[in-house]
Amino acid sequence: MKKKHEEHENHERWLVSYADFITLLFAFFVVMYSVSSVNEGKYKVLSESMVSAFSNSKPVGELSVLNLPVTKNKSIVVKEAPANQDNARSFIKVANAISMAKVPDGVKITSTERGLSIRIKDDALFESGRASLNPHMKEFLDLVAGLVSDLPNLIAVEGHTDNQPIRSAAFPSNWDLSTARANVLVRYFTEYHGLAPHRFSSTGFAGTRPIETNDTPEGKAENRRVEMIVLRHISPQISPPHPFLP
């Protein structure tokens, strides 16, 4: 009887140790979840933007990676567009990497009728009146390059200014500045990252496409931007590449 009683005591001690382990493990996951909740929110917003941009569902409007809460728009469903599932999955695959990185201020990711728009304010991407990339933006641009590298979609890069004329030796007009900035971004993706040049177009709009009023400094700051649009539809004339391209 004494032997059986000792075995019972050993069994109970094992349960206590196991319960302590489970409690500690649970506490660990609670802590990990709490410190990652912000990134999870950004991941969901970005992922749903990507799915929407490459599906037949209606655009969900502007989704700011930095500021907006997780959307609950039920129209974002991948299965509504079976033909585009691979594109959406390719975007979601890299979304986690972007969400875990520090997204710079002045960057907005938007689902539009045209596709997925990555809008970057000029003071985040360039120095005032110049067209050379700020070094601190290159980490984010590198992530974007990885995001679009496996997609067949065409990419439009568009430069914009406010309505304040610029007259400098390098840029005689806003047309020159906006075009140069769009070109710099295209060259970064094609020359540095080796993305196919035939996928890109570069356009400078000067101050002809404002998104805010130019009557306030804040509005002008919003209008000075570069937008990179990963187009929703694939052009059959350009993708696959033109037969005479190397």
CATH superfamily: OmpA-like domain
- The overall number of domains is 1
Share in helix: 40-55%
Mean pLDDT: 72
In what order do the strands lie side by side in the largest sheet? 1-2-3-6-4-5
Low-pLDDT parts are 33-38, 56-83
- Assembly form of the protein: single chain
Task: Tell me what portion of residues adopts beta-strand conformation.
Answer: 5-15%
Provide the CATH topology: 60s Ribosomal Protein L30, Chain: A
CATH class: Alpha Beta
For the sheet with most strands, the description reads:
6 strands, mixed
Distance between the termini: 88 Å
Counting DSSP E segments of at least 2 residues, the number of strands comes to 6
What is this structure, in a nutshell?
The protein is α+β, with helices and mostly antiparallel strands and 246 residues long. Helix content is 44%, strand content 13%.
Write up what this structure looks like.
The protein contains six helices and six strands, in the order H-E-H-E-E-H-H-E-H-E-H-E. The model is unreliable at 33-38 and 56-83 (pLDDT under 50). The chain has one domain: OmpA-like domain (60s Ribosomal Protein L30, Chain: A, 2-Layer Sandwich), CATH 3.30.1330. With 246 residues, it is of the alpha+beta class. Strands 1-2-3-6-4-5 form a six-stranded mixed beta sheet. The protein starts with a helix and ends in a 15-residue tail after the last strand. The chain is globular, with a radius of gyration of 25 Å.
What are the salient characteristics of this protein?
246 residues; alpha+beta; 60s Ribosomal Protein L30, Chain: A; 6-stranded mixed beta sheet; 6 helices; 13% strand
